[in-house]
Amino acid sequence: MTSPGTTLGVEEEFLLVDAETGLPAPGATAVLACAGQGPTSLQRELLSTQVESATGVCETLAQLGDQLSRGRALLASAASANGMLLLSTGTPVLDGGPPPHTVGERFESIMGSYAGVVANYQVGGCHVHVGVPDRDTAIAVINHVRPWLPSLLALSGNSVFAAGRDSGYASWRTMEQTRFPGGGATPWFGSAAEYDAEVARLAECGAIVDEAMCFWLARPSPRFPTVEIRVADAVPTVEEALLQAALTRALVRTALSEVDSGREAVRVPDQVAAAALWTAARHGVTGFAVHPFEHRRVPAASMIADLFKHVRDALADTGDEDFVETTTKAVLREGNGADRQRAAAVDGPRAVIDMLAAAVSR
Questions:
Q1: Which of 28, 115, 136, 143 lies in disulfide reach of 265, CB 3.0 to 4.6 Å?
Q2: What pLDDT was estimated at residue 1?
Q3: Strand 215-216 vs strand 183-184: parallel, antiparallel, or unpaired?
Q4: How far apart are the C-alpha atoms of 211 and 12, rounded to whole Å?
Q5: Angle between helices 238-260 and 149-156 (to 10 degrees)
Q6: Any idea of its EC number (predicted)?
Q7: Who's near 252: CB < 8 A, 6+ residues apart?
């Protein structure tokens, strides 16, 4: 890590589907064996229909974009060689029933703990890591970032389908996650010790498998000196993943500045935070959002504009301002992934699958 709030990395979770039927395909082992390794780390997920690509540590969006593109290309090529397509989507378009889970002691423990909740849990996310100096700072940063998580979710919404049908949500993945204990917006903590004690209590209660696993949407990484923001759906394109990364880094940089100046984060009430996340999952970038500070409904586009204003100086510092402004306007104009899935669905589910498969390389 060079300076706090500079380094970043992204983990992307993908779905494998049969190239002919479009149904989820349990081909992770074959795809990973064929793909090899590049600048990204290619890994298994809980279910055999999914794979993950994790970038290395990057300092610029150009570096990050190159690694994201190369990771996607390796996995897409390996999927094609095995009669499959690689999709970046929060939930499957078609429902093929519960797939086999990945073999391994930890995976077995997760399946044993959560049973039916994870049996068909084929959801994909885009997780962004940003470097911070220490865990206490990470907690303070999360407190400041917490009110803006719904806006990141709204921009990323890309999981329309539930059991093969339109759920009516921009992010059905978010609804799937509410079935786990201790999920949603991260509670306000005064220190890393408070955070660790609460995670340990959840583990002692049996609500999580171990202390390295929690379901909050923002957390200090259990492995790296980073803040990990896990609110976004898996997004269709590299450009949208870069948008999430740039906004997340800017939020962390802004939070670090606020922490350095002694400003404490606003304590958004838990129920308001939950309502804001639900509303973002339901409506995405269309309709309304919940203003976390004013506790009222506002247009979603207005809340996203407020996010941009909040982080504008940080974006200018890293040279990302023009990219974020242009890409955000494009999402508001053309719709997020969920909007584009619905537009394609007019021609049937196969059109959605083909659209998502083509978007992986963009």
A1: 143
A2: 45
A3: parallel
A4: 23
A5: 170
A6: 6.3.2.2
A7: 5, 130, 132, 141, 145, 227
Tokens linked to 215: 């379901």
Tokens of 57: 């540590």
Reported pTM: 0.97
Checking 291-299 for CB contacts under 8 A at 24+ apart, the result is 292/147, 292/148, 292/150, 292/266, 292/268, 293/147, 293/266, 293/268, 295/269
Neighbours of 218 (CB within 10 A): 24
CA distance 299 to 283: 10
DSSP code at position 58: B
**CA dist 95 → 43, 44, 87, 339 (Å):** 23, 21, 14, 20
CA distance to 16, 52, 356, per residue, from 40 (Å) = 18, 10, 21
Task: Tell me the C-alpha distance between 24 and 119, whole Å.
Answer: 14
Domains identified in the chain and CATH numbers:
8-359 (3.30.590.20)
274, two tokens: 């939950």
Structure tokens at 95: 């429902």
- Helix/strand/coil for 109: helix
Q: Distance (Å, rounded) from C-alpha 185 to C-alpha 68?
A: 27
What are the distances in angstroms from CA 353 to CA 20, 24, 83, 259, 261?
11, 11, 14, 44, 48
Q: Are 270 and 216 in contact (CB under 8 A)?
A: no
* Token pair listed for 134: 């220490």
Residues in the chain with pLDDT < 70?
1-2
At 118, list the tokens.
Answer: 């994870």
DSSP one-letter code for 119: H
- Integer Cα distance of 20 and 131 in angstroms: 42
Q: What is the three-class DSSP state of 307?
A: helix
Q: Nearest-5° angle of CA 155, CA 362, CA 317?
A: 55
254 DSSP 8-state letter? H
